[in-house]
Amino acid sequence: MIKAILFDLDNTLIDFVKLKFYSIDAAIDAMISNGLKMSKKSAEKSLFRLYNKHGIEYQLIFQKFLEESMGKIDYRLLAAAISAYRKAKASELKPYPSVIPTLRKLKRKYRLGIISDAPRLQAWIRLADLELLDLFDVVITKDDTGVFKPNPKPYIKALKILNAKPDEAMFVGDAPARDLKGAKNVGMKTCFAKYGFAEKVTIGYDASDPKVKPDYVINSISELLKIVQKNASTAGGRK
Q1: How many CA atoms lie within 13 A of 51 on its CB side?
Q2: Angle 61-70/75-92 helices, nearest 10 degrees?
Q3: Rounded alpha-carbon distances, angstroms, from residue 140 to 5, 80, 107, 136, 148
Q4: Which domain holds residue 217?
């Protein structure tokens, strides 16, 4: 029977791809408005190429972009980009529909956790911005283990903290090649958050893996409630 439910963060609880593109577009518009001599399409292509090289959470992306495109850092353009990016991100950072009420209902019966490839501080800030800090018993990030999913280390660490065996836990994520493969390899039940799936080649990795067969597929996070209820009934009641 399920005792713990672990979630990926980006594109499972929040639409990170939409957020990233929206914020980058705002930054590009701000730089062009302040004198950047480059088309929006070319700037976007250059920025995402740099993200592919340095990682989607790279904090010096605009500095690298300006150095590469202009041969120097123009601080007026840098300030415009960062300011616009932050404002756009703050306005667009929202959970998917039904995330908060679903998590609150699950929290009444199950231990909840996050396993994210995001840097520690960025993951915690996103949870704080979404007012989700009180809902999770454990948050494991790349900085906590030094490895990315699907390496088994973050799953094993989270399960140990939650005092749950692999077959007593479910992992919910949007990326079969990382989230679900890692969870399945350690013996957890897996749930594919299809609503958040996207081919992420353009922002650093391909999330697909046809060899990974999830135990469950959901088109809305609210569907989790029926899945865990069914599991509890099959097991003869909750833990």
Answers
A1: 18
A2: 140
A3: 13, 33, 18, 11, 11
A4: 4-15+94-234
User: Which pTM does this prediction carry?
Assistant: 0.87
Could you give the number of structural domains in the chain? 2
Distance in angstroms (rounded) separating the CA atoms of residues 75 and 80: 8
Kind and range of the H or E run holding 169? strand 169-173
Measure the CA–CA gap between 162 and 156, rounded to whole angstroms.
10
Q: How far apart are CA 220 and CA 224, in angstroms?
A: 8
Single-letter residue type at 169: A
Residue 118 CA to residue 236 CA, distance in Å, equals 37
Contacts made by residues 68-74, CB under 8 angstroms, sequence distance 24+: 69/36, 69/38, 69/43, 74/35
Q: Is 127 helix (H, G, I), strand (E, B) or coil?
A: helix
Q: Provide the CATH number for the domain around residue 129.
A: 3.40.50.1000
Tell me the per-residue pLDDT of 118-143, one tens digit each, with 9 for 90 and over: 999 999 999 999 999 999 999 999 99
Q: How far is Cα 26 from Cα 4, in angstroms, rounded to an integer?
A: 39
Given a contact cutoff of 8 angstroms between Cβ atoms, the answer to whether 51 and 16 are in contact is: no
